[in-house]
Specification:
By secondary structure, the protein is mainly alpha-helical. The protein has a domain at 30-79. Helices cover 71% and strands 0% of the residues. The chain is built from 2 helices and no strands. The radius of gyration is 34 Å and the shape is elongated.
Amino acid sequence: MGQRETDWALDDLNRGTLLLAVLVTAIGGFLAVIGLSIAGAAVVAAGRRWYHRVDLPPAELARLKWEQAKAAANAGAGAWQETESEKYVPRRMQASP
């Protein structure tokens, strides 16, 4: 039987293709960092515009929104209880057939 080598060797790699892959990956990473930087700058600019436009400081705005949420929850609970008391008839109070 003839003897053939089956071990992997670095000579099996196509170095041109490997270098091209590394180059494309590096360019893609660089473009991704640039894209994330631009997106981050846009978000920060939008936050600054919003902050200068709003009439209330953030703490007071948060307090206002919390009070609105509590009022909405109480109104919903009150409506629920009111509807239940108007529409619900316990079984013991219903007429038997």
